[in-house]
Amino acid sequence: MLHTLTITQAHEKLKKKEISAQELVRACIKRTEEVDKSLNAIVHRSFDRALEEAKKIDDQGVSDHPLSAIPYFAKDVYCEEGVATTACSNILREKNYIPPFDSTTTKRLKAAGAISLGKTNTDEFTMGASTETSCYGVTKNPWDTSRVAGGSSGGSAAAVAADEGFFALATDTGGSIRQPAGYCGVAGIRTTYGRTSRYGVMSMASSLDTIGPICKNVEDLAIVLETIAGKDPMDGTTGDEPVPNYRSMLTKDVKGLKIGIPKEYFIDGMNAEVEGAVREAAKVLQSLGATMQEISLPHTKYATPCYYVLCPCEVSSNMARYDGVRYGHTVKDPADLLDYYVRVRSEGFGPEVKRRIMIGTYALSAGYFDAYYRQAQKVRTLIKQDFTEAFTKVDVILSPVSPTPAFKVGAHENDPIAMYLEDVFLDGQVMAGIPALSVNCGFSKSVTPSSVEGLPIGLQLMGPQWGEGVILRAAYAYEQATVWHTKRPAIA
């Protein structure tokens, strides 16, 4: 049962030579082969390569770094030298794009001795909230395979929840780490914009995208984040802010911590079990010495509409590079260059990518730029000011991750607006560029086919700019006082 260990537990066994790197990798490979046929979380496997890396580590000896010999997966938008990376899109899948270089994040993990097992499923170019737009098909939730694992990092969250890997790399533009982590009952963190490098990670919306890990618990989050964070000369948007020792900041003590409860995040129509679990989590933190106070983030209702103007605008720009000339899907016997472009993009892109390109191109057009894009940027500033003001009064802000537990596969198939509203609690932080994380805070009472626990419920903790340390501290204290993070789905 080596695959069920945490990063810390596995590292201790490796250092004591109770297990080998090859045994650890084989345990994850075996687990993946057993359960992923039910989940569809993994889209590219690098198992032979991983075993070769594990043998090298065994021959040389495990290093002191806590990630040495730890197997992980990366979302299928992280470029990794020699490993297929397709963004789960037919426009790259046809030619099975294999990058000739590493992203900064995978390079840093490689330097630490972590071992990549392959790539996880995602919505096409990360556009979606359920992995249902992936060209490889939907990822199923390990707690109930009739439900989605969330998106766009659903493959990463499902893989970690099912113990296929010890952690997984993910991206968060409009909640794509926090929502699937919440749906699958694991821990995931969206970092401050600029805290982690985006170099070598395929872009959706460059001013909104962030990267971060999904792990089994908060301590593992701290370990991985400390390894991958920091200034990168290859990414001009990364900040010069020093990277703290996040692990040393984890304590059970939250006495005196001021936690804000935003009234706008507890809305009519929210699932009663979700609200109850999140309010109970607030009581747990209060019992540990934190103080609670109601706050207001008055422009919250504009966050999702604002996001769905700005994001498609940046999508329209970023997707322009996929033209079939430099790389990607190609077509035979075009009538002319225009016909070639139209056919490449029509055949290569799925409906959601096309939808966002069209919305973004319209909003950026000469007649509508001021009415949509410029206006949305002004609203974005107001949303950021709400958070700045709130953090003068509190240290952390607490809310649900999503208004409901994981929804059924196909539930929003013909209703893109309903799908967009799954991000209702997750877009404000994006506009403000602040960090936020998700941890499990309980389960719905409804019994699911694969577990007597019910469906996981996510607790969201938000911090000020560069405030990853304080939200990790609060989340760790909560985890140590509860048992939810120790639960695992009974998938086999």
Any idea what the CATH superfamily is called?
Answer: Amidase signature (AS) domain
Task: Report the span from N to C terminus.
Answer: 13 Å
The proportion of residues forming helix, as a percent range, comes to 25-40%
Q: Regarding quaternary structure, how should these chains be classified?
A: single chain
Task: Tell me about the largest β-sheet.
Answer: 11 strands, mixed
Nearest-integer average pLDDT: 95
CATH level 1 name? Alpha Beta
CATH arch. level architecture: Alpha-Beta Complex
Percentage beta strand: 5-15%
* Poorly predicted runs of 5 or more residues: 447-452
Q: What is the count of β-strands?
A: 13
Structural class: alpha/beta
| CATH fold-level assignment | Amidase signature (AS) enzymes
Radius of gyration, in Å, reads 21 Å
Structure description:
Helices cover 37% and strands 14% of the residues. By secondary structure, it is of the alpha/beta class. It has a single domain, classed as Amidase signature (AS) domain (Amidase signature (AS) enzymes, Alpha-Beta Complex), CATH 3.90.1300. An 11-stranded mixed β-sheet has the order 1-3-2-6-8-7-12-13-11-9-10, sandwiched between helices.
